[in-house]
Structures are given as C-alpha cells and as structure tokens.
Write a structure and sequence with these properties.
Chain lengths: ~475, ~350
C-alpha cells in the first residue's frame, strides 16, 4: 500500500503547529508518541502511521476553531470516529492532525412526535438506539460494529447492516447534519424530511468518507420498534439453489428484514467454533421476518411454501426466543470462527442477486488458482458479499497473494454489474481499484465535489481516489504550502 | 432539440452556445422556469434492464412515468416512493424533482429509491454514478446530488431504481372529524407505533387518513390495533383508498398561488394557524400544500423547514439558502456547468 510522502514543509513546522493547537485548545491535544500510537490505524491494522498530533474537541465551535487553524497553516486533517473502519479511512499520515470526535457523545434532542433524535457525532451507533428505546423507538442502520462505531463514522461511510434490505442504510435514515468545512465555517444541511430548499448536499456528504467536512451533529430518523421478529433457517445441498430461493422469496413480494447466506466452508468453521447446531449442507439461509405473532406466522408460512419448492435439506422455523438466538448464533460468530482458521481478509463487494451462482463459481475457480481458501457469508437479499480469504500472515508472500486474489474477486463483482464496496467504503484499501469501476470522467465528477467543499485538498486527501488520479490536485496544495512557508 | 440517444444529447450540449432548458413532460415547470432553448428529453426512452428478482429497474430518462408504472405492475412491482405526475410526466422529471408521494413516510423519497444515474454535464461529458445494486458505497453518492437538482448540474439520461413489491392488500383508516391542526397529533401517534403505516395525510372533508398495506391477515390485525390506539383522538372509520391518489392530484394550477411547506410535524399546527385551510397535508404533517391569493407571501413563525411557491400566477419563490449553502451550490454548479448552459434552470 502506497501513501503519498508527508509534506516536508508541514513536518518542518511540527512544533509550531503543535504549539498553535495547544494555544487554541489546551487539554485537547495529544502529542506524546506513546499516546498517539492508539491512533496509528483503524480496523485495517495492516497499515499504520503515527500522526503529527491528535486533538479531541468537545463542541462544534472547537472543531471549527481547529479546522480554521489547520486550514490557515495548510496542515492536512484526518477526521476520526471510533476507528473501526475496515478500509483504512481513518488511518493518518505523518503530516496530518487527527481530529477525533470521541468526546462528543451527547444526545441533544429526542422528539417522538417528529420521530427524530439529534446527537453529537461521536456517539456510538448502538447508544443512539439506547437513548430512544424507552419511547419504543430504534435507529435502524445496524452495522455489526454498532457497539463501537460512531454516528459520524457511519455517516462518512454510509454504513449499513443486516437489516438494510428493509430499512435502508445510513443515507436513508439521515435527516440533517451540522458540518464544519475545512476553512472552519459551519453549515447546516438537510431539513425535516431530509431535504433542504436546494441541492441535496446532505446526500453527497453521506458516504464521502470524511473528505468534505467534519460532521459534528446529526439528526437521525428513528422508527417504532416492531412488535417482534422471528428467523427461519433453510439448508440446501447446492449454493445455486440457495441463490434461486432468495430470488423466489423476493419475487413473491416478500421483503424480509434480513436474508443472510453462508456457504459450506463458513458453516463448517462456525460449527467447530460456536456449535450452533447448523445442518451439514452446502449453503444455508437465515431469513428473518418482523411483526406481531400472526403477521410473522403469515410471512413464514409463505416462505416455507417457497422454500419447499427448492427441496431444502432442512427448514427450521424458530418457535422460541432461545431457538431464534441459536439460529443467529452461528451467523453472528462467523467472523470470529474464521479468525480461528487463520488470518483473513474480509472483502465487501456487491453483486446483482441474479449473478450469485456465476460469482460463487468464479470465486471457487479463483480460490483454486491462487491456492487460498475462500469462505462466503453475506447479506443475500441485497447482494452485499463478504468473501473471506484465509491466508497465513507468517508465510512470506501469502498476504500479497491474498490481496491479489481479493482484487480479482472485486473485479469479478464489477464485471457482473456490481461494485467494489457495499458498506465498508473505499478508504485506502480499494482506492487504486476505483479505476476498474469508474471512467476518468466519472472520477473527475466526484473530485469536483471535493474541490467545492475542500479546495486545498486538506481533508483525508490520500483516500478514495487513486493516487495518480488525485495527484494534480494534491500537488496543487503542496505548492501552496510551499508558498505559505 | 429532441435527442434520441445519450450520444446525441451529449453532442447537443457540447455544441450549445446559449442556455438550454431541459424539459420532460413539461407537466410541472415552476413559474418562471424554462427560459432557454427547449431541450426535449421525451425521445430518450426505453427500459434498459428490468430484473424483478433483484428489485432493479434501469430506464432512460424520457420514458413516460406511466410506461414505467405499467412495466412494473405487470410483474407485481412498483416504485415505492409513489411518484406523482400528470399525463406525460417523464421518469427523468420525477427524478430531477425528487417527486415523492404519500409512501415517503415509510419507504423514503425518489432519491432513496434511486441507485444509479447517467447524466451529461454542462461540457457535454457523460458521467456515471452508482449502478444497479442497492448497496453501494463506492465513491461519492452523486445519485443523491442529482435527485431533485432540477437539471442544474446536468441532464439525466438514465436512472436505476430499486423497485418494491406491490402490496396485496390496502386499508385506509379515517378520522373524519379532525381539522388539519387536530389531525397532526393523531398522525404522529399512528406513525409512532409498530403499525408500519404507509401513508399519513389529511384532506378537507375527509379528515385524517392513515394507510396500512401488506398481507391480508397482517393488515387486518394492524388496522384493529391502530383503530384502538387512535380512539382517543375521535371517531375512527374506514376511509377511502382512492384518497391517496386525490391527495396530490388536488394540487392543480390555478389563478391563486400554491405554496409547498415542509416542516417538522410538531411545528405544523403553529404554521397552520397563520394560513387558510390547506389543500392537503401529507407525510404525517411534514408537508403542507396551501392555496394563497396571487402574490401573497405568508407571514409564518420561525420553523425548521422551508416554504416555497410552486405554482400559480406569481413567479416561483424559493427560500434563500444561507450564504454558505448558497456558496457551495453555486460552486458546484460552476464546476458541473462552467459555461452556464443550464443557467436557465431555477
Ligand atoms: C467487526 C467490524 C464489523 C463491521 N461491520 C460493519 C457492517 O456491518 N456494516 C458497515 O457498514 N460497516 C461495518 N464495519 C466498518 C465500520 O464499523 C464502519 O465503517 C463505521 O461506520 C466506521 O465508524 P467509525 O466511527 O469507527 O469511523 P472511523 O473508522 O473512525 O472513520 C471512518 C471514516 O469516517 C471518517 N469520519 C469519522 N468520523 C467523522 C466525522 N465526524 N465527520 C467526518 N468524517 C468522519 C474518517 O475520516 C474515515 O474516513 C465493521 C467494522 C468492524 C471492525
Ligand atoms: C398534480 C401534481 C402534483 C405534484 N406533486 C408533487 C409533490 O408533491 N412533490 C413533488 O416533488 N413533485 C410534485 N409534482 C411534480 C411532478 O411530479 C414532477 O415534477 C413531474 O413528474 C415531472 O415530470 P415532467 O417530465 O413533466 O418534468 P418537467 O415538468 O418537464 O420538468 C420538471 C423539472 O425537471 C427538470 N428535468 C426534467 N427532465 C430532466 C432530465 N432528464 N434531466 C434533468 N432535469 C430534468 C426540468 O428542467 C424541470 O426543472 C407534482 C406534479 C403534479 C402535476
């Protein structure tokens, strides 16, 4: 993984910059290398770099002062929520100041009649639901990292979870943000229905990976908690049959809240690890539906009829909370289980559901070619795949081979009409593959948006766009820095 | 000018030397909109891809909304955001205006169902964003930026939508005795419970209206629970399912002006107290349509949304964005359309 070399004119002013930060926000600056180490990387821990300094502001006003300062000194900034990005989105560079939102966790407003909650951006995803639970509401986007990840990070990555087939991802549940631009100016985007009077700037900020501004506050749509939910587990003797069954369920007009898919390598690993009691089969689906007990019965009866047409190895409908828990147990421990098998890379491509058989076959083929095992577990309803490539970090060359295999699998996703990332984001991880999916004009159009929000390319600039593509813009910034110095 | 292919569209825009005004069906230009040479999109038609089992439809922008509706209905599907339009409305016009109907409270707006776009910018460059899969965070989401942009950044040539199954059963509950202001708490109550409400509106003469959709037994059970929950607000009876179509068709051009106000539902009663009886309320009270004498500007209390004049004799009036937002919008417009070819757009 290549990163642009740090700006020497920033490094040479290191102490002056830290002094200025300290003067602006005493008590908020971390500069001791022993302490900045915690900010060297995010959950993509293979790549690390200590930042110039870390600052932990407490308010929008403090974020604004910090950004104006960094802007005027032409110092790059990396925003950070909880650091759970799997794409290296919050990994710093040596010339960057990390601005972390972890002290900004307040709930600012809860309105049941308006069905919204307003929070500071450092608040964790799960604790947003926690704050409105007592009123019978929840916040729908549920990334698996929801215990740790922050709403600001969710907005930057447009995160989604297992239930997004029904409830959508972050962008579908976001009504507004307070955004601090790189020059320190503060802008409110969105409105009561998520729409302002003009262009949908909120829509483009969501998913922009911390490159357009720092989100300090967010207004989120909350939903009434459904009366109940119940899963069914369906086992098949062929992966294609499982894929066809997913298509048939959706075709029949049923939109479950979740349809999860696991293939046999994943089932075997999970069984050895969590002993969930899954059937020994080639593929299985977990289908969950919601509502009152009669509603659930009605939906599951239809799903059972559909599944029967595909001759399942097993159809297990949960009859109790304990059975539901056991049906989900294996799925929820899948990633931990794979960790027992070796080191792994978790990919995140999306494909049209109809391309499932072709892609699964293609992945099998590539896995044999590269001599590395691949296991599949994913959100089948929306085609968001997470192939896990198992490798040995201690074997020389294995990581490179695993990365090459990963890139080939993502190319396959794009080839069948899908995309490089469904929920984890581009970050540094998939940056250089962007040209596989986008023509130069497509990338240029996206970079124009960054030009408008952050003309000097100071915010998280080495991410998302292939380095050679963004180089002219980043160089322009370096030249300006040279002028400033 | 009436391009038949995306290539022709790009050529026309590249060669244009004066402002163009993009028109679909021309069913809903704002007063004052459309100053430039007409760029008629209605020949750029056709469904490019429809995969019901992936819930995906890709369609060229000039395709009539009605054609899209029929194509989907033949497979038991729909656009969940319930686009509203008159005879002749195009799917590109729907996307460019983010036109969304009653189901927005449950299923989101047009922008939420839009998963990919192709468009031609002011330099005649074809740009692609998003794609045909519903879960996609690859790069910036320009799809949302184009939704509702009314052609300010480019001419949409093709749009991908996430489709949804047509619900087999619909039930409408009505609280006929409630006036507009009194309807709001009832609608909030309905939307705040586990009933999966797919429409929450108010119409003069009909009162508060709440819609439930889905499988038969489920709708029946939810209607009973919801009826009980709403009883304290007043008499509840079966409502008219056709009201949901009326709701937006009611908004006709007239000599009077039509105002569209979006606000938080909790702010609606105070806003309503400054207005004559509205034409309708939708989205649980977050959308107010009201008719005012030509040229009159209502004196409203401070609220968190915005009010705009969308039809009538007087020119369109759009609320001034705050200076920063305005700067960002102008900056974006200048980068996507440096020659001001789409400058005629509002
Ligand atoms: C075990 C595990 C499971 C996961 N499961 C899922 C999943 O199911 N679905 C999913 O979508 N993701 C998942 N992720 C990825 C990750 O949790 C999400 O991307 C999450 O949204 C990141 O939030 P964060 O607060 O940790 O952000 P960080 O990692 O701190 O930052 C992520 C990006 O957002 C930017 N950013 C952070 N805060 C702000 C802000 N306030 N303003 C502007 N930019 C900001 C950063 O610069 C960076 O580019 C998972 C990660 C792990 C480790
Ligand atoms: C009775 C009625 C009620 C309505 N209620 C609502 C409502 O509640 N909410 C709502 O949002 N809308 C509403 N509308 C608006 C209406 O639904 C849409 O504007 C209409 O469907 C647009 O279709 P059209 O093809 O006629 O667009 P036109 O009227 O031709 O154009 C509308 C706008 O879109 C632009 N445009 C059209 N095609 C393209 C393209 N291909 N690329 C870029 N820009 C393009 C035009 O420049 C113009 O700014 C209503 C309309 C009617 C008639």
């Amino acid at each position: 993984m290549q990163m642009p070399p740090p700006d020497p004119s920033v490094l040479s002013r290191r102490q002056a910059i830290i002094d200025a930060l300290n003067a602006a926000l005493p008590d908020a600056v971390i500069q001791d290398p022993a302490e900045t180490r915690a900010y060297e990387c995010d959950a993509l821990s293979a790549y690390r770099c200590a930042p110039l300094a870390v600052v932990l502001p407490r308010s929008t006003d403090e974020v604004s002062r910090l950004l104006r300062l960094c802007h005027d000194l032409r110092v790059p900034v990396v925003p950070r929520g909880a650091g759970t990005s799997l794409a290296g989105g919050s990994m710093p560079t040596a010339d960057a100041v990390v601005i972390g939102l972890s002290r900004m966790t307040d709930v600012l407003e809860i309105s049941a009649p308006d069905r919204l909650v307003r929070v500071q951006a450092g608040r964790t995803n799960l604790s947003v639901s926690g704050a409105v639970e007592g009123l019978g509401f929840f916040y729908a986007p549920d990334p698996s990292s929801q215990l740790a990840c922050a709403i600001g990070g969710n907005i930057a990555m447009n995160s989604g979870g297992a239930h997004c087939l029904k409830y959508g991802v972050t962008t579908n549940n976001l009504l507004g943000v307070t955004l601090v631009l790189m020059d320190g100016s503060v802008v409110e985007l969105g409105g009561p229905m998520g729409e302002g009077p003009g262009l949908d700037l909120l829509g483009v900020v969501c998913g922009s990976e911390g490159q357009l501004g720092i989100v300090t506050e967010a207004t989120l749509r909350i939903l009434p908690r459904p009366a109940g939910a119940r899963p069914a587990l369906i086992g098949f003797d062929k992966a294609e049959t499982a894929g066809a069954c997913v298509a048939a369920i959706i075709r029949a007009g049923i939109i479950p809240v979740a349809i999860e898919f696991m293939d046999s390598p994943c089932i075997k690993a999970t069984e050895a690890f969590a002993h969930a009691g899954y059937p020994d089969c080639e593929a299985l689906l977990i289908v969950e539906v919601e509502g009152t007990p009669p509603e659930i019965d009605e939906q599951l009866a239809l799903i059972r009829d559909i599944a029967r047409r595909f001759d399942p190895v097993e159809f297990r409908e949960s009859g109790s909370d304990d059975e539901s828990r056991r049906i989900w147990l294996g799925r929820k421990s899948a990633f931990g289980a794979m960790g027992q098998m070796g080191d792994y890379i978790c990919l995140d491509g999306t494909i049209p559901v109809t391309a499932l058989p072709r892609v699964l076959a293609g992945i099998g083929e590539l896995s044999r070619q590269y001599g590395l095992a691949v296991a599949n577990v994913f959100h089948a309803g929306d085609g968001n795949m997470h192939p896990l490539i198992i490798y040995d970090a201690n074997a020389p060359g294995d990581l490179d081979r695993a990365e090459d295999l990963g890139a080939d699998i993502l190319r396959l996703c794009v080839e069948v009409g899908g995309c490089l990332t469904g929920e984890h984001g581009v970050g540094i991880e998939k940056r250089d593959l962007m040209s596989v999916q986008f023509d130069p004009a497509d990338l240029e159009a996206q970079m124009r948006v960054k030009d408008a929000f952050d003309p000097h390319w100071l915010l998280n600039a080495a991410k998302v766009f292939p380095l050679d593509v963004s180089a002219p813009r980043r160089d322009r910034r370096l030249n300006r820095t040279a002028d400033a110095a | 000018m009436r391009p038949e292919t995306e290539g022709q569209l790009a050529d026309l825009i590249r060669r244009a030397t004066a402002p163009l005004s993009i028109t679909g069906g021309g069913t809903r230009p704002w007063p004052g909109e459309g100053g430039g040479t007409p760029l008629d999109m209605t020949a750029l038609t056709g469904v490019t891809l429809y995969e019901p089992e992936s819930l995906t439809l890709v369609v060229r922008a000039g395709t009539p909304l009605e054609t899209v509706r029929q194509t989907l209905a033949a497979e038991g599907q729909m656009l969940a955001f319930e686009p509203v339009g008159r005879d002749g409305s195009t799917i590109g016009g729907v996307a460019a205006t983010n036109a969304s109907g009653p189901r927005r409270v449950q299923a989101g707006a047009a922008r939420d169902a839009m998963i990919g776009v192709r468009f031609v910018d002011g330099q005649g460059e074809v740009i692609r964003n998003g794609g045909r899969v519903m879960k996609n965070v690859t790069g910036y989401d320009l799809v949302k930026l184009m939704a509702g942009s009314r052609g300010r950044l480019g001419a949409l040539s093709e749009i991908s939508f996430r489709t949804a199954p047509l619900p087999p059963v619909t039930a409408t509950l009505a609280l006929p005795d409630l006036d507009a202001a009194a309807a709001i708490p009832a609608l909030s109550d309905a939307l705040g419970g586990p009933f999966d409400v797919s429409g929450a509106a108010w119409l003069p003469g009909q009162g508060a209206l709440i819609r439930l959709e889905g499988l038969a037994a489920s709708v029946k059970a939810r209607a009973a629970d919801l009826g009980a929950r709403l009883a304290p607000h007043g008499r509840v009876r079966q409502g008219d399912d056709a009201a949901w179509h009326l709701l937006h068709e009611n908004i006709q051009d007239s000599d009077a002006d039509i105002w569209r106000i979006t606000c938080r539902p909790s702010e609606a009663p105070a806003i309503l107290s400054h207005l004559p009886e509205p034409i309708s309320l939708d989205w649980g009270g977050a959308l107010i349509h009201v008719r005012l004498p030509a040229g009159q500007i209502p004196d409203l209390p401070r609220f968190s949304g915005h009010a705009r004049r969308i039809a009538g004799a007087a020119p369109a009036l759009r609320p001034a964005a705050d200076p920063l937002t305005a700067r960002l919008e102008q900056d974006l417009q200048a980068r996507f359309d440096p020659r001001g070819i789409f400058g005629g757009q509002v």
